[in-house]
Design goal:
This protein has 364 residues and is mostly beta strands. The strands form five sheets. An eight-stranded mixed sheet has the order 16-15-14-13-17-18-19-20, with no helix packed on it. Strand 1 and strand 2 form a beta hairpin. Pfam families: DUF1668 (PF07893). This is DUF1618 domain-containing protein. It comes from Urochloa decumbens. InterPro entries: DUF1668_ORYSA (IPR012871), Gal_Oxase/kelch_b-propeller (IPR011043).
Length: 364
Amino acid sequence: MASRSPKRRRRNDERCGHCAKRKHLYLALDDWRGGYSVHKLDADDMPDHLSEPPAVRVTGPDWGQMSFAGFGTNILIALNQRCPESFPTAPRSLIYSTDTAALTVGPCLPHDHFCDLDSTMTTGGKLYARSWVFDKDRESPCFSDHMQILRPTGLEDLWDPSFRWSWDSKPIPPSMLRERRITCQAMHPDGRTIFMSTDCKITYSYDTNNGEWKDLGDWELPFKDQAYFDRDLDAWVGLHATEDGCVCLCPVASRSTAATQPPKCTMLKERLRRYNKDDPRYQYPMFSREKATSLTYMGDGRFCLVEDIACSEFVYRDGSVVHVTLFGLKYDNKGELRTKAHRTTRSYAVSKNGPRFSHAMLWI
């Protein structure tokens, strides 16, 4: 009997009700005159062009920018988290279900908080985001830190679909974070402890089960933005904090014991990023788009590197090219970190791209 092709076998698996839902990459771009698009990509069969229409298209605000964050099988779309509380008509968020492809109204963001929804963590179907609020009732008014938790309420068949989710605000002890900028965060392999390094070179941990915070010492993780645990390598993997766009890894730090030295960092010698400041083709800066390069973990030792390169200094008018690279990591026989033999690369032309938002890549 002839064996079935991988694609046919995969399609049959998708029709099986007992099989786990296949995950996809979701690429959010500010790529059309009216706002933002979210494109659904099959990591096993990457398209040569972004399909039209996209999975969902949302009209963007005239002032400010949107943010996208994944939790569970949903995508939170914050219409404008920087809208001041003096605007009582500020819109709610939207939630896109990757299960049903339905777009519904989400809960209002905490109106008196500034939420950093560009640096979120997710575990147990919940979304964790840091926020700030100006506490004017104190004897000495100042900003205070909070952890915002977006969770499902379990309520269904309501007249207002936004009641299906709610934000829960937990104050962060004043001795933790101290209004410092979080430079990197990583989830411990226990699935409950979030590590956070700050720009004052101190690392903290937050237990999502009991809400306990710990000061882990005067050191910082070597990554920029988010790092991910790779079980095969038994290490965290992310983009290096100072070596622009380079991939690196380090051992998982202790969640219970403070340290005096950071974990040893191992660099990937192969360069995956295309941007080169000395190459005239890449001479145009990405303005304030600090996250023009991102790394997303896809599970099973696979990673997705996204790089957004402007076509000219007028990025809003002339657009950019989004380069997507799928790869895995391994150690060679010399003990050096290498990419696995199979690597997938695609490049997508984007006709318009706003200077304040580059992209968001989610694996759901």
